[in-house]
Amino acid sequence: MSPRRAVRLAVAAGLAAALPAVAAAPASAQQLLRSWGTLGDAPTQFRDIKDVVADARGYVYVLDETLGSSGRVQKFTADGRLIRTFGRPNDPDDQRRTEELPDAIDSGESLAIGPDGTVYVGEAGPDRARVSVWSPLGEYRRAFGSRGDGPGQFRSAAGLAVDGAGNVLVGDSSNQRVVVFTNPGAFAGTIGAGTSLSAVDEPTLGSTDGLTFGPNGLLYVGDSPQVKLFRPTGEFAGLFGQRADDPGPFFQDVSDLAFAGPVLYVSDRRLSRVQAFTETGGYLGQLGAGPGSQPGQLTEPTAVTTDCRGAIYVADAGNRRIQKFGPAGATPCGDVTNDPQERFLVKLGGPTVLRFREDFAAVPQVTCDRPCTATVTGTVRISGRRRAVRLEPAREVINGPAPVRVAVAPSEAGTDAITAALRRRKRVSASLRLSVRDLAGKTVVRTRVYRLR
């Protein structure tokens, strides 16, 4: 089978289900509805936002790179409440190479959501290039693709899209093409393969910054300073745009594309704006005057996505935040408050009593499948002593899913009393109270009492 024929079968089969039916409001009716995020590496913070996508159930996924080049995906509700985090956290003490850590995200560049909720991350780091596949709960499943210039290989993953049948398209700017994979990850062909980084007004690609399917069945590719259209067969179908700063079909640095019904939103990183167009490139309006840091303003937006109601989420990378736009009074895609799929999973390891020279500490072990806060309090009783020794409260923020030891210990005076009692062979017992809450303060594990002797 020829690569072109394979592309036709792989992509055309899924186009009908690739886009949700939404009623798009005109650009002039879009208002800032919500904003979240600040600079940092803690949960709900961002350092280098690469992409943002929304799924059909109302969740928003943000791909970010933290200090130390550790990539992660944070999953939020539509109002910015953090649900969980994907990807192995950066560990400076781990001497293994990146390719030995399948659940580590290495230089993630793009995100996409499959029709079944599967999460795809396009990675193009110095050690490997691949598409990693994750469950909606953040469980690593598999990966496909490799670094190179041959069939099924790519050197960058600046754009990523999944059609209704689960076929994955990777925008490989380094090789000036879109690489197509079938659902299991088998190579199916290429689209728009070019030979030059500059392909202005050409039926080939120079860059692939953003991929999306239109309701007309065409594939839209951001190739600065233009947007190019391709048929499911891989044939060139048209383009619009030219290099300029004026409002309209003018771009300097196209960073992403997303449809809400028949309206195409295009983010421009250099001009700090998101513009709206018809399917054929007719100008409809603009979101976010920039650059600026005030609410509703944008600075270097790297990505744009829309949800099932037509709300627009912009990765405002220069301000390290996500901004959500939409018509006033817009309802969310669905109620995810009590989503049974997103149940909070917590594992508790039994505490141990540790004695290091003159120190005393009790250490429970806690594992959360998403960010949480574990608090331990308690007392130590010594035989013959009327008053118990109070342990200083210990609190740990757990980013999950790795287990965390929460060490709780007495004050210096309490340590002296316990040490003296142990030397005299007196009976010492501890009573610990452990509680776990999510980052919104909701109790996940009610107070659990441990007694140690």
TrEMBL record:
Name recorded for this polypeptide: NHL repeat-containing protein
Source organism (scientific name): Paraconexibacter algicola
Pfam families reported for this sequence: NHL
Recorded superkingdom: Bacteria
InterPro entries on file: 6-blade_b-propeller_TolB-like, NHL_repeat, TAT_signal, TRIM-NHL_E3_ligases
Keywords: Repeat, Signal
PROSITE patterns for the chain: NHL, TAT
Signal sequence extent: 1-23
NHL repeats: 144-184, 285-328
Molecular function, one GO term: zinc ion binding
